[in-house]
């Protein structure tokens, strides 16, 4: 008889292995996306609008440069902070595109994706009980990572009527003496919301007045439509208070390379570097070679991809509106975030039935936290043909719902 | 030559990718009105900037596979009309698929298609070489087409993404 490994351990040690887990970790809820993943996987007929990554394969010149570097034997560790050439290139790129000046030698740290950077920042800043303010609906990892670091996540609602912008009023309502860090993610996953310079000013004032630090996850910075992204670090007075997190995944279609970076005041970078050097040592050298190639020769290709997202954004927003779903105008990232309230179904019911009955996968808004209920995240990082077919299937599905 | 409007350039890009995209779809993708897009297409057609809506065929997949050769042609230009007159005499043959005026070691690059090797060879010996201003020809047969006009014939790159990801 084959014994389930879990059972066997239980017999040996006399109690559930779960009881050994750190309570902090045991209590973390599994991602709500997981269930949908299991439902959708393996079904070839499904068109997916559920993917949080570009549909482009990393441009060939980036892949080719990496293959070449492997052939020449670049397989070693690098400096903990990343190769000097890459940090230099990142510094120049941020200055040229977002008008923020970071010193490559002590203000830029290359990380394993933006995800590691967020974890490092939270672990470097959070003491037990510190409150971390997170605008929601938001990218899933912020709250769990806050909890693992010992902090207390506090969600701030953002709403369709405000185009999912964070407002000073809603932020102030959640500030307590324990508030320490504000996490920002604009352009936003899942809402596609962005913040302009004028939108940022009142937020910056609250940050200043209440002595907060900001972790600004600007991974979608390149993906804005009609206007340039404004980095929170570029707002007067916010440079030292901001930990800027970004990476190569979205703009350069390099998700699988896990290449990110974090920029901040030298004291903060030094603290994060200490954790980074003991946990991952350095980001993989192959990824660093690829990232440098992307920054050196990949700007034109990047702009072409962004143009293509913009076209598909128009297609999907109009398509969703045409089939009767209310949809605010997403101005960043590659997500549309329509409301499904008019159908009378909850996000979860809608997404589940859409998947089973119409074979279209999308992510129900409720998994993204406060304010996400009633919405559906539709990624438009897929082909025009797929989008057209997905919209048509959704339209039929909604018509069927109306008929009862 | 004309400097095209941004809209026309974008329309051309989208039609180059897929000539069957209709004006409604183009208008949505580009955030323009249907009228603007229809006008842009009409003008592009009238100005012969859009010459034709053709189909790219991978002929190696069909039985009646044809033979294609690229022929380097050296010529003496004609007084007064340069290379154009002789180029025209060549490109009017229906067997000729394309003709380019080149810099470097030869003057014209001529793409010729035939049902078999012999047909192409006899085109070169009977039609092309005897032309008065043709000094020499060098014929290269194409063995396999990997990519044409930016289109890869056998694309092995697949979508490996997870169905749902955060």
UniProtKB/TrEMBL annotation, chain A:
Residues 44-393 form the Aminotransferase class I/classII large domain. It comes from the Bacteria. GO terms for biological process: amino acid metabolic process. Keywords: Aminotransferase, Pyridoxal phosphate, Transferase. Its EC number is 2.6.1.-. SUPFAM superfamilies: PLP-dependent transferases. It is an enzyme of class 2 (transferase). Pfam families: Aminotran_1_2. GO terms for molecular function: pyridoxal phosphate binding; transaminase activity. Its cofactor is pyridoxal 5'-phosphate. Belongs to the class-I pyridoxal-phosphate-dependent aminotransferase family. This is Aminotransferase. It comes from Paenibacillus zeisoli.
From TrEMBL, chain B:
InterPro entries: Dimeric_a/b-barrel (IPR011008), HTH-Siroheme_Decarb (IPR050684), Tscrpt_reg_AsnC-like (IPR019888), Tscrpt_reg_AsnC/Lrp_C (IPR019887), WH-like_DNA-bd_sf (IPR036388), WH_DNA-bd_sf (IPR036390). Coiled coil: none annotated. Residues 73-144 form the Transcription regulator AsnC/Lrp ligand binding domain. It holds the Pfam family HTH_24. SMART domains: HTH_ASNC (SM00344). It comes from the Bacteria. PANTHER family: HTH-TYPE TRANSCRIPTIONAL REGULATOR PTR2, TRANSCRIPTIONAL REGULATOR, ASNC FAMILY. This is Lrp/AsnC family transcriptional regulator. It comes from Paenibacillus zeisoli.
